[in-house]
# Entry
Amino acid sequence: MKKTSLSDIAKHLGVSKTLVSFVLNGKGKEFRISEDICNKVLEVAKELNYQPNRIAQGLRTGRTNTIGLIIADIANQFFGILGREIEQEAARYGYRVIFCSSDENPEKSKQQIAMLQQSQVDGYIISPPKNSEEQIRSLARGHVPFVLIDRYFPEIESNHIVVDNFDAAYRATNHLLSLGRKKIANITVNLDLINMVQRTEGYRQALRDASIQVDENLIKVLPFSHDNKDVARAIKELVGKPGQKKIDAILFSTSKLGINGIECISSLGLKIPDDIAIVSFDNPDAYKICISPVTVVNQPLKEIGKTAVQMLLNEIKHPDVPSKFQEVILKTDLIIRKSCGS
Amino acid sequence: MKKTSLSDIAKHLGVSKTLVSFVLNGKGKEFRISEDICNKVLEVAKELNYQPNRIAQGLRTGRTNTIGLIIADIANQFFGILGREIEQEAARYGYRVIFCSSDENPEKSKQQIAMLQQSQVDGYIISPPKNSEEQIRSLARGHVPFVLIDRYFPEIESNHIVVDNFDAAYRATNHLLSLGRKKIANITVNLDLINMVQRTEGYRQALRDASIQVDENLIKVLPFSHDNKDVARAIKELVGKPGQKKIDAILFSTSKLGINGIECISSLGLKIPDDIAIVSFDNPDAYKICISPVTVVNQPLKEIGKTAVQMLLNEIKHPDVPSKFQEVILKTDLIIRKSCGS
DNA sequence: CTGAAAGCGCTTACAG
DNA sequence: CTGAAAGCGCTTACAG
# Structure
């Protein structure tokens, strides 16, 4: 079961590898190779089940038609689906995807970038974890095509596709306000990442615009690697003693927080939305069937994935163009379900 | 920003590529290269930020240290997490993973296998969609290392890691019986895949062992690419007219079915577990926070992933050993929550 | 219109 | 102990 190579086909027909290569790459016409020979080559290639060795091609041409994808956390459905969109879009253009999950760990993403670099990927799509600035800078310095998704570092010039997190949080908070909620908390993670900062900023601005003073005690910032105990502690602090009614709504900045949060709220015997109204970023399945289906900020995953791939391929194909970085900011939509009452 | 190659280092030091290659591959000792030179090589490699070109290595050695992974559906958290476990375990042994989602589509998986083959992966981990028998056979014929996960084809000899689906469904059904449920339905997908067949078989056997006649009308088999409307229709049929009480429990054979099912049950105004008790395969976040947290058959994802990688690497490293196929059947555990009452 | 030859960046017998 | 050379499977100027 030896694999067949170009020269196997060439020998088989008594022609040169050059010719076979031309034909198989669709350049038969261009080099005016007789149709007869073309057909024979194609036939033999099929017969011997020829599969081009992409690795040899890559070594020779310097392009591997592979892109490296580093997402932040595959256990998060948001990134799972985003990964699939990216893989599908890439496949449409004949590109393969090497897929990594950094689990929000900069050490890991560093190793993964090195690995992808050694694999000679043509470009990168990355949702960088915090403290990975230096890695991204080094990509930029090397003039390697890359695009960032979900977050970026404002101090580093880069291509990136993000959503308007400020606007999304603003509208989500406004939705709560419009339903009469006044004591709205925000649970978020480490404010080292721009997307998280902007979400909390949008929340703040909405309160201000409604002439409600922002109470910093109602903003809970958890470590990135929180578990449900951390979330439970935060919620208990926010809720206060029974009957105290310190808050009447929560904006969760991620679905991981929200899922853990809802679990905790239920176990505390509190009712959604009666006691506490809820809005969360992202739209996992969990929110559709939970106690009180959750009103969410839905991100356009398909569009993020498509745009990221197209932007990257454009960069890969025109390396000459002096790098002008592009920023794409997509809109989110608020899907209203039952978790805020009415 | 030209990448540095072996010969750059060699020139820099006035030695041969051979020597540099030996040192960098940790064979300095073996070839008794003076420690002095070794250190210098290492130093210069670091200084020039040398990154070995894995593609060139691959072409030369015939091994790419890459494994191809085709999972059935990345939008399913089960496979997302399984993918991560596999990637992590592979990384421990210095292997990269090229990640694909076939979306249960045999056309897609066929293309993906061809793509992975062209990328010269050293082996495959696949959860094959139905109607992909020929693809798997062709791998087997080519003596390509591969292991199947989650399902396999009984008529094709293969390495595979699965769970004891019969036992799992048997125990799940028994759990429902032990709580006094008598009219237990099973919602599943196309019975073309062994894992699904075994789940329904386990369900049947549990009923028989409890001297309950299996009512084929209570087994709903949906197409693989079902949406929530299909699930809703099935449930309406099962439930019958209001007050009819045709069933008092459902075993869902997949979490996709279960998530859609619960959404539908709620919208019908039925209560879980009072009107209908529920057990489902798989353990997505959704089940933890839903209306009535769902009792589930939990699969040992970490173990499946680890075992799959180790079995594959073993195969890759000993291609000489006459291929004796291995079967690993892992146990599941039943996580009891509130969806079955008590 | 077609072929011989160089070379991508490695590894590895072989020779000394 | 170290180096020159071949070769993995391709592509692509170059020559005719």
In short: DSSP finds 13 helices and twelve strands in chain A. Chain A has three domains: 6-51, 62-163+301-331, 165-298+334-340. Residues 301-317 of chain A form the longest helix (17 residues). The radius of gyration of chain A is 26 Å.
